Amino acid sequence: MTPRPYQSRTLSDARGCFAAGKRAVLIVSPTGSGKTCIAAWIARGHVDKSPRNRVVWLAHRGELLDQAAGALHGVDLCVGLRGVNAYAAVQCCSIQALTRRREAPEGTLIIADEAHHLAEGNGWTDLTRTYLTAGARIVGLTATPARADDQALHGFDALVVAAQIGELQALGHLVPLRLKRPTSFLRPDRIAQKPVDAFYEHANARSTVVFAPHVKAAEQYVYEFRGLGVSCEMVTGKTPADKRARMLGHFNTGDIRVLVNVGVLTEGWDSPICSCIILARGCRSQALYMQMTGRALRPYAGKSDALLIDLRGVSWLLGRPDQDRDYSLEGKGIILRGASATERMCPVCGLPLGDAATCPECGRETEQVIPQATGEKLVDWDEQAHEAVKDQLKPNRAVLSLAGMMRKYGERRAINMFRGIFKRHPDARTVAQAHAFNHAKDGAIAPFAVDEMGDTTDGG
Fold first, then answer.
1. Three-class SS of 368-429
2. Taking the C-alpha atoms of 311, 192, 307 and 64 in order, what is their torsion angle to the nearest 10 degrees?
C-alpha cells in the first residue's frame, strides 16, 4: 500500500506531535478516507523502531478488528487476533473483552479505533489511561471527534485533521452529494414526506438506508415499503447479530433495496453500494449527523453521486454534511466552519436546558410519535437561500427565553422569571422581539428557531 498525499501529510503531522512530546494524538479523518490504513502505517513504523515495541489495536466491534487485521497484514505485520498469534508484536483486541477481564496485553503504542467512544464513561477511558500511566503512547481514530453531547473528547493532548469531506470529494475518493429537503426545519412530529414517497420520487433506483426516530416508526416505514413491493428490512439494536449480518450481506449484493434502521448503521459499517440516505428523524449532533450521512459517500462502480433526503430539514440547523468543519479538543468538538455554537433551549417553555435531556421546568414529554408527512415538496440545497434564512434567524438566548416563558406564563410573570435568570430587566427591544417571535407564522421561522436550540423528542 502506498499512502495518498493527505495520508502522508497526516503521518508526518502525527509523528511531529509525538516528537514534540505529546502522548495522545487524535487523528480526525472522514468516513472513507482510509483511517485504518493511516494507523497501520503508524503501527508499522513503531514496530520497526525497536524489537521491544508492541502495538495494541483496540476496537469495540468484531468487524472493525477484522478490518484492522487486514490493513496490518497489508503492511506486512504479523497480527494477533482471537487467540491466533498471541505473541505477535501487534495485537487486535476487543475493548469490551479487555475491560471485562481486567487484563490487557503489553503495549507501547495503543491505537483506539472509533475513539469518540472513549468518552462514554464505560471503562474504556480507564483502559487507555492505564496504558498512558505505563508509558505508552495513544493514537485515536475517528471521523467525529465529539461526545454524544457534541462536547470535545478528553484524554488527548494533540489533534491532527487528515482531510475534510470536500477535499476528498474533489480528489475523487468520495462521491459528490446531492441534498433534498423541505423549505424549513420541521417540528419533531412532522416530516415533509413519507420515506416511501420520497424514495419513489427521488431515489427509486438507489440502494437506500432510512434512519427512523424509533422502532414504532421504523416498523411503519417497512410496512409501507413492502406494501409497494420494495424489498425492505429493519435493523435495530435488538436484531440478533447473525440476522443483522445476513441482512447487511443481502443489502451489499442488492437483494435488499432499502434498510430501515434505528440508531444502528451509524458507524463501523461500510457498504459502498449505498447511494441514498433518507433522514426521517431529527438530529442536533454534528457528530451523529456526519456519521449517518457519511454512509453513502463511498465510491462504487457506476455510482456518480450520493443523495441525502432530509425529511426533517436537519440541514437547516447543521449545514451540509460535506461542508468544512473545525475540530477542537476544548468546548464543542465539532463546529460548522464559520458558525457559532448555539445553546440548547426547551422548545416548549424556552428555558435553557444545559445538558439535561428533559426540561426541568415544564418536564416536556418524549412520547414516541410517528412523524406525520406534511406533503411538502422537497427542494434542492440552495446556498443563497440557506444564508438568507439564517440571517433572519438571529434571536439570541434572551429573546428565545423570554418568548418561551411568555407563551406559557404570560408577559408579567415571564418578565419576573427573566429577571431571575438573567439578573436584569428585559429592555423594550427584547420584549418586542419576543412578541414578534411568538407571532411568527407556524412552520416558517419560529418553529425552526425554537427547535434549533433544543430538539429533544426523538433522540436526535
1. CCCCEECCCCCEECCHHHHHHHHHHCCCCHHHHHHHHHHHHHCHHHHHHHHHHHHCCCCCHH
2. 20
Q: Using 50, 70 and 90 to split pLDDT, how confident is the model at 365?
A: very low
The residue range of the domain holding 434 is 333-367+382-453
The residues facing 279 across adjacent strands are 211, 310
Residues 292, 353 share a domain: no
Within this chain, do residues 11 and 154 fall inside the same structural domain, yes or no? Answer: yes
Same domain, 160 and 181: no
Kind of pairing, strands 24-28 and 137-142?
A: parallel
Cβ–Cβ < 8 Å for 15, 156: no
Question: Are 277 and 340 in the same domain?
Answer: no
Helix or strand holding residue 301 (H, E): none
Helix, strand, coil percentages for the chain (3-state, nearest 5): 40, 15, 45
Q: Are residues 359 and 267 in the same domain?
A: no
Helix (H, G, I), strand (E, B) or coil at 211: strand
Q: What is the pLDDT of residue 341?
A: 45
Is 344's pLDDT higher than 60?
A: no
Go through the chain and tell me how many residues it has: 460
So what's the pLDDT on residue 285? 86
From the list 415, 383, 389, the residue with the least C-alpha distance to 402 is 415
CA 166 to chain centre: 17
Q: Which residue has the cell 495520508?
A: 7
**Comparing C-alpha atoms, which of 445, 434, 446 is closest to residue 410?**
434
Beta strand residue intervals within 8-62, DSSP E: 24-28, 55-59
Q: Which residues pair with 56 in a beta bridge?
A: 91, 110
In angstroms, rounded to a whole number, what is the distance separating the alpha carbons of residues 291 and 146? Answer: 11
Domain membership of residue 110 (yes or no) is: yes
How much is the pLDDT for 62?
83
Question: Nearest 5°: phi and psi at 144?
Answer: -135, 90
pLDDT tens, position by position, 391-408:
554 556 777 788 888 887
How does pLDDT run across 215-266, given as a tens digit for each residue? Answer: 999 999 999 999 999 999 999 989 998 999 999 999 999 999 999 999 889 8
The residue ranking higher by pLDDT, 438 or 155, is: 155
